Carbonic anhydrase
Amino acid sequence: MVWTAAFLMIFVLCAGSEDYCYDEPHCDPYAWGDSFPLCHPLLEHHHSPINLDQHMIRNDSLGPLQLEGFDEIQTGHWTLENDGHSVVLQVGSGMEVSGGGLPDVYYTVQLHFHWGGPATNGSEHTVDRRRYPMEMHIVNMKSIHPNMSAALDDPTGLAVLGFLVDVVYADNVHFGHISQKLSSVAYKGQTTKVKPFPLLSLLPKHNMSQYYRYYGSLTTPPCSQAVVWTLFEVPIYISWSQLAQFTSQIFSTKEDAEQVTPLQNNFRHIHPTFSRTVTASRDAKLLTGTAGQPPRLAASVLLLQIVLCGGFTFKL
Ligand SMILES: *[C@@H]1O[C@H](CO)[C@@H](O)[C@H](O)[C@H]1NC(C)=O
Ligand SMILES: *[C@@H]1O[C@H](CO)[C@@H](O)[C@H](O)[C@H]1NC(C)=O
Ligand SMILES: *[C@@H]1O[C@H](CO)[C@@H](O)[C@H](O)[C@H]1NC(C)=O
Ligand SMILES: *[C@@H]1O[C@H](CO)[C@@H](O)[C@H](O)[C@H]1NC(C)=O
Ligand SMILES: [Zn+2]
C-alpha cells in the first residue's frame, strides 16, 4: 500500500515535470525552473524576453536579412498544430535566413504565436514597457546542426525572428491563411494541413531593415540560451476579430477534457538584460520614449530579491 502510494507519487511528479503551463502556480513561468533547470533566472544568465528601450547601440554593419524562399510557394503541405502552449505552423524545408549579422545560414523550421486575453496584451518582448497585443516568432535552426537538440547546445544555434503584432479595424488578408484554419486546431493535440503560401506576405511590406539584435534564450522550456534574436521595429497589423480568434477560440486542453481552458497569456515575463548590449540595425529608428530602469539598478534589485527570498523561486 505504502509502495503503491510512493510509486504513484513518483509517477505524478515525473508526469508533472514534463509539462509546463502559463496559468497555474505549480507550472507557470515562475515555476518552470523547478522542472527545467535552465529556466532559473540566475544572475548574468541571458534569458528572453526582455524590454527594449533606448539603451541600445547602433551597429551600421547590420543591414537587411536575406530571406530565401520566403517569396515562393513551397511544395507539399504545411502543418498547423495546437500543442497546448501555442499554435505552431511547421513549414517543412525550402526556406532559409542569413545575413543581417547572423553568424551562419539558418533553415526555417516553424512559426508560432504568443498572445494575451480578451482584455490584455500578450507580446513577449515589450518596447519601452509597452506590451503589444501579440507576437509572432519565426524559428530558424543553424544549418550545420542535424537536429534541434544539437542546435540548443550552441549559443547561436537558433535565429528567431520576432514580429510584434498590433491591431487595426481591417482584416489582414494574408494572415487569413492562418486565422481561417484556427477553428480546426482549437484543442490541444489537434493538427490540420495548410496549403503553403509565400511567408513574406505575412511580414511587414516595408522597413524590414529596421530591427534590434540581442543574444538570449528560448522563451519556453527548456529555456536554452541558444537564440540570436532579431526583433523587427515595424509591427504586423491584423484585425480585432483575427486577434480574438487566438484569445478566445484556442484551448490549452484536449477536446474531451472535462473542463475546457482557453489558452491565454502564453507569454513569459520580462528578464533583465544584465551585461548584454542590444544593438540596433543601421536603419532602425532608435526608440525615443522615456527611460526604463538602468540595467545596474535592475541587477541589484534582483540580487536583493535572491538574498531576501533565500532562493531562486522569487517572482520578478
Ligand atoms: C557589428 O556587427 C558586425 C556584424 O554582425 C559584427 O561583426 C561586429 O562585431 C558588430 N560591432 C559591434 C561594435 O558590436
Ligand atoms: C495594448 O495594446 C494596445 C493596442 O496596440 C495599446 O493601445 C495599449 O497601450 C497596450 N497596452 C499596454 C498595457 O501596453
Ligand atoms: C542530434 O545530433 C547529435 C549530433 O550529431 C547527435 O549526437 C544526437 O544523437 C542527435 N539526437 C537526436 C535525438 O537525433
Ligand atoms: C519606413 O522607412 C521609411 C523610409 O526609410 C521611413 O521614412 C519611415 O519613417 C519608416 N517607417 C517606420 C514606421 O519606421
Ligand atoms: Zn515563441
In short: The longest helix spans residues 2-17. The helical segments are 2-17, 32-35, 148-152, 176-179, 240-249, 295-309. Residues 274 and 296 are 7 Å apart (CA to CA).
